[in-house]
């Protein structure tokens, strides 16, 4: 069992009536804030007005950066940091999905760095070790960026998604109000929910080392809880308990507790090169890939049977038929029909208009240019990745 | 569902090879430390020497307070604070069980307070809002004081256990090395483990409000994990995985995550007035009381049936016989035999030499002088408490 260190300092304000604490958090660091958001959805649900009222009534100087893209562009980050530098802004508040919060973290770091281009930090051309304080207000249960210390940014010119990370980027405070997620569409709810599951699969449940019983059992419980509550959130978008569960689960899937003790490389997230290449939704690409990845592994490597059988029984609720291989197969079937029939998501690349044209390029990216990912749950070569992509067609 | 706030800033160093980080943590706050410990057990296992070597090799000025009692006396706390005041000590390191870490917190607060008597803080006669930084090194899986913000101190003259709490008391860092718990006796391992379960029962599992599915499922998983791993830790004291699980479970049972959203008053801990009155082990008293409390509630109040049935199936592993009342009863039987046959603990007060002499006094304490605890899982009057005590004889 590996030693580990765990610390997560984010202060979480959870619930319907916590917005009144926002000014306290902003004023801890100064008198101004850059509010970062995406399209108009936070205006449509009235959240924008409430936030502005809360900030302005407390005499906070407010700057704004709207239009953060679903895979946030590095050029947009650069724009945000320029606003902060020009106006000596003292904090950054990201309101929206993971992309918005990730962009806010990148802006926070770039503002105090000795360059105007975030990509210099990503490529380590410019050293950095400081950042403006980040505050986060997620409006979708998905990446868990609100309690996490990393961010992912897209460089469209280079066709690459990459990022920076450091404890200083972890939001000082996060405002998690389930009602802010009520208006998220069924499809985006499903994609966000699957992203949560993929985080748990990738680094915490399908691991390549000794398991800590406590973390392992908790991760399994989180997975099962998401599997049970996500369809409710899709069917009943204003179900407070289901929305609250998804929102809190998103944070816990990525806030370092679940990974404590594990050093497994994320394989599904490595295989998921489609969202940066085709600008498709990350969680959807993961939902297409995951069952195929499991099927491929099960055919290739019998050492996964016990893990996949456990997944079938304890996460998917498959009835034990006494044979672990049969259980494992039934678990994959159950996952596939969960995605199709309960999440109502496409289950192949062709359904979303993607063909094999770029597979040779993507398989290289999936292994980060190496022959394989050596520390993944099971090492897969570039050829294995290509085979999995073909199964996804 | 209640709104809640969650933050836990403690940095955890978990594992066999983390002691080398101790000097970094001490030196963050100054150049000296008061090392607080109990009897000789940390010397017997060699931990004392290792800690002293680590501190002295890094030129840290070391002061010591040995002899912290199992229920730490307020007079001992006063002594510790005097050492810190006299020598301008800059941090406090508690090495031992919950009592030692609790005493360290109290010393840390008293050192910066305007009195020499911790009981002035407990009784709110003297206001306080600051404390020396506390570091914690638990040597038994039990109270979880290492990630928690409160402490309990005994005033033997008054026959009262009470405490203080505040975010400032939460340890800055905690060193959790499962090997430091290898030499804990079977009985103390059992008592510590039951204390963990009681924390989970009391504020997180048997609650009087809407359940958050995520927290509830995780608490249930923690309970089941402890139920499974504790007997292993007792039978195989050097089983690293079992000891690691117990140690980490202790922290999580009390680090605010599990309670987030709940406002239930701890009833088992209220009923447990024996450890302060008779100086018996807290976890043992809880193990005697818990099954009787459940039996009493089940007879008195049918609204507990579903909760107790769920406990039976999901925590104790009882086979569902299709009738929730029968399940509930079977769960209590299973808990009672778990305590007797797997934890090897006494199951009645008479076995530990306690009679009904002080019951009338204890029932008042159990309700904190009120008629009942109104926000407990189920409100119990003083008379109810007396009845439960009688069942414990």
Secondary structure layout:
2 copies of one chain form a homodimer.
Chain A: E1 4-14, H1 22-27, E2 32-36, H2 41-44, H3 47-57, E3 61-65, H4 74-87, E4 92-96, H5 98-111, H6 118-122, E5 134-138, E6 150-155, E7 160-165, E8 173-176, H7 186-205, H8 213-235, H9 240-254, H10 268-271, H11 274-278, H12 282-300, H13 305-314, H14 324-342, H15 359-366, H16 382-392
Parallel strand pairs in A: 1-8, 2-3, 2-4, 4-5, 5-8
Antiparallel strand pairs in A: 6-7
Helix pairs in contact in A: 4-5, 7-8, 7-9, 7-12, 8-9, 12-14, 12-16, 13-14, 15-16
Describe the structure.
- Two copies of one chain form a homodimer.
- Chain A has two domains: 11-180, Rossmann fold (3-Layer(aba) Sandwich); 185-392, Dehydroquinate synthase-like, alpha domain.
- Helix content of chain A is 48%, strand content 12%.
- Chain A has 16 helices and eight strands.
- In chain A, strands 1-8-5-4-2-3 form a six-stranded parallel sheet, sandwiched between helices.
- Chain A is globular.
- The interface between A and B is large, with 42 and 42 residues.
């Amino acid at each position: 069992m590996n030693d580990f260190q765990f610390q997560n300092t984010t202060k979480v304000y959870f619930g319907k009536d916590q917005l009144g604490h926002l000014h306290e958090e902003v004023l801890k660091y100064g008198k101004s804030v850059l509010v970062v958001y995406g399209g108009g959805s936070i205006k449509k649900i009235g959240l924008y007005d409430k936030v502005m009222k809360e900030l302005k009534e407390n005499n906070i100087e407010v700057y704004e950066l709207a239009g953060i893209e679903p895979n946030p562009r590095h050029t947009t980050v650069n724009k945000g940091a320029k606003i902060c530098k020009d106006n000596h802004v003292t904090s950054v508040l990201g309101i929206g999905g993971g992309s918005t919060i990730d962009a806010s973290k990148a802006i926070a770091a770039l503002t105090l760095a000795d360059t105007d281009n975030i990509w210099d930090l990503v490529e380590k051309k410019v050293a950095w070790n400081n950042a403006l304080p980040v505050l986060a207000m997620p409006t979708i249960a998905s990446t868990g960026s609100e309690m996490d210390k990393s961010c992912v940014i897209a460089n469209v010119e280079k066709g690459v998604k990459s990022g920076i990370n450091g404890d200083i980027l972890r939001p000082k405070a996060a405002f998690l109000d389930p009602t802010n997620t009520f208006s998220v569409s069924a499809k985006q709810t499903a994609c966000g929910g699957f992203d949560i599951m993929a985080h748990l699969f990738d680094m915490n449940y399908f691991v390549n080392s000794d398991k800590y019983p406590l973390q392992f059992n908790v991760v399994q419980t989180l997975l099962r809880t998401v599997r049970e509550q996500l369809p409710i959130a899709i069917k009943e978008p204003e179900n407070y308990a289901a929305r609250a569960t998804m929102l809190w689960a998103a944070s816990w899937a990525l806030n370092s507790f679940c990974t404590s003790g594990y050093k497994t490389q994320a394989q599904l997230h490595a295989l998921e090169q489609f969202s940066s290449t085709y600008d498709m939704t990350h969680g959807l690409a993961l939902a297409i890939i995951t069952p195929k990845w499991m099927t491929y592994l099960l055919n290739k490597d019998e050492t996964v049977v016990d893990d996949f059988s456990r997944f079938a029984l304890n996460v998917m609720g498959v009835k034990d038929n006494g044979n672990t291989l049969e259980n494992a197969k039934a678990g994959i079937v159950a996952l596939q029909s969960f995605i199709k029939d309960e999440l109502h998501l496409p289950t192949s690349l062709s359904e979303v208009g993607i063909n094999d044209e770029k597979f040779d390029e993507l398989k290289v990216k999936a292994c980060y240019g190496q022959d394989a990912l050596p520390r993944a749950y099971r090492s897969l070569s570039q050829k294995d990745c290509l085979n999995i992509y073909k199964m996804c067609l």
